[in-house]
Specification:
329 residues; Nucleotidyltransferase, domain 5; 5-stranded mixed β-sheet; two-stranded antiparallel ribbon; DNA-binding
Length: 329
């Protein structure tokens, strides 16, 4: 990195004094400890109306200095409003916002790093935006929530499984087709209703329905109703007891098989785990799922299905699942 320092007003006054006396540029440069080209460039760029003035030269320099800095994208009101709406109202991540703008409005592109800086600098903060007035950063996906400790013991009951995930078809493993589903439940208050979530592995399309409780019979009926009119090739749930009646689901869906992951390895059905994390923004823990209407659950599901994803090239699960194109910006 260079150590060049811009000319000061005092140096500019010395230059004016030198050229008024007819001193050569080389001599002026030597006495200032500058390069001759610096003095020559100063006179060429900052001489106005054929007369060099230190005050005018300083003003020219200040204007150029001010205009050479890149303009902050989020100071553009249209871009700011667009980012704020998608982040705070639609719960899009900064990277989702950035890349979807690139697809639909490239002339307004703003990098996700710029959006993150805006969030952490408080540009999107407002009163009552988060508990404890922590600001907009609390709306980011990972906001300090605790993780399960490595080696934590699985305490849920064991069920008889039909197939191991290692036997799942290659097409399902490679996400090569529509119809390979991952399944789980999202709980609220203990002993109350729960959500049954189903994610298509290829499109990441979500089906979310409410079950009366985390009982195998209730989960069975919801799964059958949710999938009976959808393309189904395989189903990969976790090993929770709520899926104990998976054989009944297989019979109702024309023999479509269940494939169970290894114990303590939730990443083997990571699509569903990730989506359940998204749902927690709308259905917090310890909140009774019974209190949420079916219309609200459908509304949240649609929001998630119409949110662009990096793994889909910033298309939405809805677009990939139904082979349609939406206009979201």
């Amino acid at each position: 990195m260079g150590h060049y320092k811009h000319l000061s007003t005092k140096e500019r006054e010395f230059i004016l004094c030198g050229i008024t006396k007819g001193t050569s540029l080389s001599r002026i440069a030597k006495e200032l400890g500058r390069n001759k080209s610096t003095i020559s460039r100063e006179l060429r760029r900052n001489t106005g109306d054929e007369f060099y003035s230190p005050c005018s030269a300083q003003s020219f320099y200040s204007n150029r200095r001010r205009n050479c800095c890149p303009r902050k994208k989020l100071l553009n009101q249209d871009i700011y409003n667009l980012v704020k709406n998608k982040f705070l109202c639609q719960q899009w991540s900064p990277q989702q916002i950035s890349e979807r703008i690139r697809l639909e409005k490239p002339e307004q592109f703003v990098s996700f790093n710029t959006i993150y800086r805006g969030i952490y600098s408080g540009m999107f903060d407002a009163r009552n935006l988060s508990h404890g007035e922590k600001g907009a950063k609390r709306h980011l996906r990972h906001k300090g929530k605790p993780r399960h400790r490595k080696g934590s013991e699985e305490r849920r009951g064991k069920i008889q499984i039909s197939n191991n995930i290692v036997d799942r078809p290659k097409e399902a493993n490679e996400r090569a087709r529509i119809g390979d589903w991952e399944a789980d439940t999202v709980l609220g208050k203990q002993g109350k209703s729960c959500l049954v979530t189903l994610d298509d592995r290829k499109s990441r399309f979500l089906i979310c329905r409410k079950a009366e409780g985390k009982k195998s019979a209730a989960v069975r009926d919801v799964m059958i109703d949710a999938l009976k009119n959808e393309p189904v090739e395989t189903i990969t749930p976790d090993r929770g007891k709520e899926f104990a009646e998976h054989k009944a689901v297989t019979e109702e869906l024309g023999g479509k098989q269940f494939y169970f992951p290894l114990p303590h390895q939730p990443w083997q059905r990571g699509t569903n785990e990730n989506t359940n994390g998204l749902l927690r923004e709308y259905f917090p823990k310890q909140k009774d799922i019974t209190d949420y209407s079916d219309s609200y659950i459908a509304f949240v599901t649609e929001k998630i299905n119409k949110r662009p994803k990096k793994c889909l090239g910033y298309k939405t699960p809805f677009e990939v699942y139904y082979s349609k194109t939406l206009h979201l910006i």
